[in-house]
Design brief:
Layout: E1 11-12, E2 34-38, H1 45-56, E3 70-74, H2 77-89, H3 97-106, E4 116-117, E5 126-127, H4 129-142, E6 153-161, E7 173-179, H5 190-197, E8 216-217, E9 224-226, H6 236-247, E10 250-256, H7 264-274, H8 280-292, H9 295-311, E11 316-322, H10 338-351, E12 358-359, H11 360-366
Helix pairs in contact: 1-10, 4-5, 7-8
């Protein structure tokens, strides 16, 4: 079990009440005009940052953000970028996106600041105590402790491990979306939540989520894992869909993703680069995770999003897919090359400006092979 916040009288609600009032519990219902969905993929975190920077350039999308009208959703390393956007684009005391986050936090990042191997081979393979220290330093510098300190309405996804007695629908896993403006979730420790959203099964330890002493939450007492394990934005219908049905369509929705493995061969090569000597079940579990963040699974989410729009109304008037498709990718757990990754994606966008933000329907139509 990974290091956690301290409980100290923290009260938890029932697991099965979690879905009640997904939108009703949110303090206010502002008129959202745009949203960013940040999918993440471990060490490929800077690829998202490059896409985000290019989207903000006037010659491209001229994207602007405001905590008054912008919704943020993220999981895995996308949740870390979500926290950074909150810190650097909030109205009050914003940090510098370029000088602080990129130059002082992201680009100098190394694998040793994220994980280290246990002295003997056992599960999980890596300890993420270094990541905990890195995150707590970042959160201390940005003056963010609880989810309520995310001043944009933000959703961070994580996956709960449920016991057999709690599986009313026979599902072992359930993807949950913690909301910064939900009174039942606003006092969760942000470090715990970020650690849980990035806890890659088999590779990294699970994480429990605690909160402010004396506060009450509807989050369960469980082990949590990477928010992408259940699929790309699993249960978006329950959370984002419910909100959009009440709020009305957004003007713009940007789905921002790092480059992903497209074939079983690429997944196999990535696995071989990371691990050897695992048991058959462990191999299956980790390959299942790699499959859950593959291009094929990403495409399934896009199709589900398209179908939701056909059944109700589009999530946004303009829905864009932003994902680089370079000739080669970077290793998923190699955090020593954040700046080269950033530069590679910026170069790719400059060479293919028409592929930075592709309308959802057009992207799905042109990537049918990735669904096969």
């Amino acid at each position: 079990m990974n290091k956690t916040g301290k409980e100290h009288g923290y009260s938890r609600g029932s697991f099965f009440n979690l879905e009640d009032g997904i939108t009703n519990n949110i303090k206010t219902m502002p008129t959202f005009k745009k949203a960013l969905m940040l999918t993440g993929a471990a060490a490929r975190i800077s690829q998202e940052v490059a896409l985000f920077d290019k989207l903000r350039e006037p010659r491209y999308q001229n994207l602007t953000l405001s905590e008054d009208d912008t919704l943020l959703c993220g999981f895995s390393s996308g949740s870390l970028n979500l926290a950074a956007i909150n810190a650097c684009f909030r109205k009050k005391d914003p940090c510098s996106w370029d000088n602080y986050y990129k130059e002082s936090v992201l680009f100098p990042l190394t694998s040793s600041q994220v994980f280290n191997a246990f002295p003997i081979l056992h599960l999980p393979i890596y300890s993420t105590h270094p990541l905990r220290d890195t995150l707590e330093d970042f959160l201390r510098n940005t003056q963010m402790t609880y989810t309520r300190d995310l001043l944009f309405q933000s959703y961070i996804l994580t996956m709960a491990d449920r016991t057999r007695d709690e599986r009313s629908d026979q599902k072992k896993w359930e993807t949950l979306w913690a909301c910064s403006r939900n009174p039942m979730q606003e006092n969760l420790y942000l470090a715990d939540l970020l650690m849980s959203s990035t806890a890659i099964p088999v590779a990294f330890p699970s994480q429990e989520i605690y909160g402010k002493p004396g506060s009450t939450t509807d989050f369960p007492t469980r082990k949590f894992y990477d928010g992408g394990t259940g699929g790309t934005f699993a249960r978006f219908e329950d959370y984002l869909g419910s909100l959009i049905l009440q709020n009305g369509p957004l003007d713009e929705l940007y789905i921002i993703s790092p480059m992903r493995e497209k074939s079983e061969e690429e997944i196999h090569l990535e696995f071989n680069h990371l691990f050897s000597g695992l048991e058959a079940l462990e191999i299956k579990q980790f390959k299942d995770f790699l499959s859950s963040i593959s291009m094929k699974t990403f495409m399934k989410f896009l199709v589900a999003l398209q179908q939701w729009g056909q059944q109700h109304f589009p999530m946004a008037k303009h829905c864009y897919v932003c994902i680089p498709e370079m000739e080669s990718n970077f290793k998923i757990l190699d955090f020593d090359n954040e700046k080269p990754q950033y530069q590679a994606v910026c170069k790719w966008v400059d060479q293919h400006p028409d592929r930075l933000a592709i309308p959802l329907d057009q992207f799905i139509k042109s990537h049918q092979n990735d669904l096969a």
